[in-house]
Design goal:
Length: 223
Amino acid sequence: MRILIIEDDTAAAGFMAKGLAESGHVTDHAADGEDGFEMARHGDYDVCVVDRMLPKLDGLTLVQRLRAEGIETPILFLSALGEVDDRIKGLKAGGDDYLVKPYAFAELLARIEALVRRRDPGVVETHLKAGDLEMDLLARTVHRGGTEIAMQPREFRLLEYLMRNQGHTVTRTMLLEHVWDYHFDPQTNVIDVHISRLRGKIDKGFAVPLLHTVRGAGYCLRA
């Protein structure tokens, strides 16, 4: 996906862009409302992530102007303003979703993906594939080389996340947030244990390994 980040906090925008890039997406960044408005008008974006409080042109006005021009790109408001009235104003201005800061990156990513699915239901995936490894999301089954592999629920969730991000390094923080719903480091070896079990199931006995450790960074599933 191509995502426009309209955020005046460059550190926050950089963190978001890095996470989205690691998940396989392409991002552009605008540091104020006026630049963001022009980029959103003329760029072909799948989603815009818009901060409420922006210099030069505030987020609410920016989105209202986009909608007035007939631009229907899905918009996710991202703001420290988290009261009910604030969220209602964002949605009434034309936003499709509203996420309050501070946020978990895994939730941000899930909400962005949900907005795109809502806009185009045809992009919903029910089958994932990496080399000869296949996952059926509806039947909840995994096969490699035609052989079914039994998976525990957490193993299935872990593998699904790795397959959705195949070819990209997935960090331990991303796994803790997305697979275990932890927004802190529990200081345990839970990830190492599950990765070891998963590797034993999908790689053991096969000529080509799919699950790789990226030293000092995380893990990567690639054919």
